[in-house]
Amino acid sequence: MQWKQLPLGPLQTNGYVLFDDAKHAVIFDPGGDAEKLQAFLDDEGLTPQAVLLTHAHFDHIGAVDAVRKTYNVPVYLHEDEAGWLPEPSKNGSSLFIGQSITAKEADSFITTDGLLDIDPFSFKVLLTPGHSPGSVSFYHEKTATVFAGDTLFQEGIGRTDLPGGDHQQLLDSIHHQLLELPEETTVAPGHGPTTTIGVEMDRNPFLNGLS
């Protein structure tokens, strides 16, 4: 199995496509540029099985409906952000870019930590609120990757000054969920370059008292 990082949408948010040798795929955070995303899927001959959202901010959702309609796949989101996809004031698009970015409501809501099986993929769902109330991270053991959204970045952490953000909750999520993963785990963040859990344990100033 392997994955591809695709900068998408108005903020060039990192979307990801995880796929196997049989050309099954899962899409994380399709933030926009539906044509670019579809071109990659078609060029690789991939068949999406689902869309997984780390959270429902506007820059992570812009191509959700296009993907859902084209490939007839379910969209997963944490229940604490139910109602955010269709509402610009909740997903932040009306506030930050002065236009409405919306999607239809999610098809399936995540409620708790645990295993999520989307054949042939299996993920460990980690509840990582703080950047937003329903932020989740998806750990894929076979590729040793955690798709972390805007929770943890290379030498940074997610902002917490948006509605529902909580700085201490974010730090708790990182320490008790993400930093418990193997140190060699690749962190695939919502913005910027990838990193690893071990590197962030050593170098992230927000986590090790260097700030």
TrEMBL record:
Residues annotated as domain Metallo-beta-lactamase: 12-191
Top-rank taxon: Bacteria
Keywords, ordered alphabetically: Hydrolase, Metal-binding, Zinc
Record's keyword annotation contains Hydrolase: yes
Ranges for region Disordered: 187-211
Record-linked Pfam families: Lactamase_B
CDD domains the record matches: metallo-hydrolase-like_MBL-fold
One MF annotation (Gene Ontology) recorded for this entry: metal ion binding
Co-factor requirement: Zn(2+)
Protein name: Glyoxylase-like metal-dependent hydrolase (Beta-lactamase superfamily II)
Organism: Salsuginibacillus halophilus
Lineage, highest ranks first: Bacteria, Bacillati, Bacillota, Bacilli, Bacillales
